[in-house]
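User: What would this chain look like folded?
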Amino acid sequence: MTETAAGRPGSTLDDFLAEEGILEEATEHAVKSVLAWQIDLAMRARNLTKAAMAREMRTSRTQLDRLLDPDNSSVTLHTLHCAAAVLGKQLRVDLVG
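Assistant: Here's the prediction, encoded as C-alpha coordinates.
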Protein backbone atom coordinates (compact mmCIF):
# COMPACT_ATOMS: atom_id res chain seq x y z
CA MET A 1 0.00 0.00 0.00
CA THR A 2 1.01 3.57 -0.55
CA GLU A 3 0.57 6.59 1.68
CA THR A 4 -2.08 9.09 0.63
CA ALA A 5 -1.47 12.83 0.68
CA ALA A 6 -3.01 12.98 4.15
CA GLY A 7 -0.57 10.33 5.37
CA ARG A 8 -3.20 7.60 5.72
CA PRO A 9 -2.58 4.16 4.25
CA GLY A 10 -4.34 3.64 0.95
CA SER A 11 -3.76 3.63 -2.73
CA THR A 12 -4.67 5.90 -5.58
CA LEU A 13 -6.96 4.84 -8.36
CA ASP A 14 -3.94 4.67 -10.67
CA ASP A 15 -2.18 2.37 -8.19
CA PHE A 16 -5.23 0.12 -8.01
CA LEU A 17 -5.63 -0.03 -11.80
CA ALA A 18 -1.91 -0.76 -12.20
CA GLU A 19 -2.11 -3.55 -9.61
CA GLU A 20 -5.05 -5.02 -11.56
CA GLY A 21 -3.06 -4.72 -14.80
CA ILE A 22 -5.59 -2.44 -16.47
CA LEU A 23 -4.16 1.06 -16.04
CA GLU A 24 -3.22 1.50 -19.70
CA GLU A 25 -6.59 0.23 -20.93
CA ALA A 26 -8.51 2.43 -18.47
CA THR A 27 -6.46 5.50 -19.39
CA GLU A 28 -7.00 4.89 -23.10
CA HIS A 29 -10.75 4.54 -22.58
CA ALA A 30 -10.88 7.69 -20.46
CA VAL A 31 -8.98 9.75 -23.04
CA LYS A 32 -11.20 8.49 -25.88
CA SER A 33 -14.35 9.16 -23.86
CA VAL A 34 -13.31 12.74 -23.18
CA LEU A 35 -12.40 13.35 -26.83
CA ALA A 36 -15.72 11.93 -28.03
CA TRP A 37 -17.58 14.08 -25.49
CA GLN A 38 -15.66 17.23 -26.51
CA ILE A 39 -16.35 16.65 -30.20
CA ASP A 40 -20.03 16.00 -29.51
CA LEU A 41 -20.27 19.23 -27.46
CA ALA A 42 -18.57 21.26 -30.18
CA MET A 43 -20.87 19.77 -32.83
CA ARG A 44 -23.91 20.71 -30.74
CA ALA A 45 -22.56 24.24 -30.25
CA ARG A 46 -22.30 24.61 -34.03
CA ASN A 47 -25.66 22.85 -34.59
CA LEU A 48 -23.91 20.27 -36.78
CA THR A 49 -25.67 17.00 -37.45
CA LYS A 50 -23.60 13.85 -37.83
CA ALA A 51 -24.29 13.86 -41.56
CA ALA A 52 -23.13 17.48 -41.92
CA MET A 53 -20.04 16.86 -39.77
CA ALA A 54 -19.10 13.80 -41.84
CA ARG A 55 -19.52 15.80 -45.06
CA GLU A 56 -17.31 18.62 -43.77
CA MET A 57 -14.70 16.09 -42.65
CA ARG A 58 -14.92 14.39 -46.07
CA THR A 59 -15.51 11.05 -44.40
CA SER A 60 -18.34 8.60 -43.90
CA ARG A 61 -21.01 8.74 -41.25
CA THR A 62 -19.75 5.33 -40.09
CA GLN A 63 -16.27 6.76 -39.51
CA LEU A 64 -17.77 9.64 -37.55
CA ASP A 65 -19.80 7.18 -35.47
CA ARG A 66 -16.54 5.38 -34.59
CA LEU A 67 -15.02 8.71 -33.60
CA LEU A 68 -17.95 9.53 -31.32
CA ASP A 69 -18.08 6.04 -29.77
CA PRO A 70 -16.20 6.20 -26.44
CA ASP A 71 -15.65 2.43 -26.58
CA ASN A 72 -13.96 2.47 -29.97
CA SER A 73 -10.28 3.35 -29.63
CA SER A 74 -9.32 2.59 -33.23
CA VAL A 75 -9.45 6.19 -34.42
CA THR A 76 -6.53 7.71 -36.29
CA LEU A 77 -4.81 10.97 -35.49
CA HIS A 78 -5.77 12.12 -38.98
CA THR A 79 -9.46 11.64 -38.21
CA LEU A 80 -9.11 13.49 -34.90
CA HIS A 81 -7.24 16.31 -36.64
CA CYS A 82 -9.94 16.60 -39.33
CA ALA A 83 -12.71 16.72 -36.73
CA ALA A 84 -10.88 19.39 -34.75
CA ALA A 85 -10.31 21.49 -37.88
CA VAL A 86 -13.99 21.34 -38.88
CA LEU A 87 -14.92 22.47 -35.38
CA GLY A 88 -12.42 25.34 -35.39
CA LYS A 89 -10.27 23.61 -32.80
CA GLN A 90 -6.71 22.33 -32.68
CA LEU A 91 -5.74 18.81 -31.72
CA ARG A 92 -2.93 18.69 -29.18
CA VAL A 93 -1.18 15.45 -28.29
CA ASP A 94 1.43 15.36 -25.52
CA LEU A 95 3.80 12.77 -24.18
CA VAL A 96 4.15 13.22 -20.44
CA GLY A 97 5.97 11.39 -17.75
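Residues 11-86 form a domain with the 434 Repressor (Amino-terminal Domain) fold (CATH 1.10.260). If you want, I can go into more detail on any region.
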